[in-house]
Amino acid sequence: MSLDALKNQIADFAKDVRLNLSSMASDETLTPLQKYGIFAACGIASRNPQVRQALVAEAAQHLDETSLNAAKSAAAIMGMNNVYYRFLHLASNEEFRTMPAKLRMNVIANPGVPKQDFELWSLAVSAINGCGMCIDAHEAELRKAGVSSQSIQAAVRFAAIIQSAAIAVEAA
Fold first, then answer.
1. Which pLDDT value is given to residue 1?
2. Active-site residues: which are they?
3. H or E segment at 69?
4. Residue 15 CB coordination number (10 Å)
5. How far apart are the C-alpha atoms of 85 and 65, rounded to whole Å?
6. Cβ(38)–Cβ(158) under 8 Å?
7. What pTM was computed for the model?
8. Measured distance CA(149)–CA(99) in Å, rounded
9. What is the pLDDT of residues 50-89, one digit of tens each?
10. CB distance 154 to 147 below 8 Å
């Protein structure tokens, strides 16, 4: 499925979602690697088969195999981390915060793409998954790397648009 086919699946009640999807492709706030990595990672994180297929296919036209796999890794590792760290944040029992996570996360140290790009993808996925601790941690890493507020905001805006597309497709 193409991005255009995905937009065609979105009903008129969600016309704004269609327009926002269209604007993402032409947005120049992010580098192509950043933008299309977010497409893939957030398409996967949306958990909607049509959205995933369209956005991963779009990303595959712009990313090499290593970069596409890194975006998939960002979605997968954040799927794990967002659940765990959201639990730590929400649990009243502070004992859990003192325990080692015992979760393998080696891909974060060596994702195969520039670290700041992987962090940006992880931030976007964490926004979809609603993990405040992860959002704060990734934003802090991005700030240390000198990533602008505009780029951080664009990544989260793209995540919001992608998630709204998944909801619009399912609501049709």
1. 74
2. 131, 134
3. helix 65-90
4. 11
5. 29
6. yes
7. 0.94
8. 33
9. 999 999 999 999 999 999 999 999 999 999 999 999 999 9
10. no
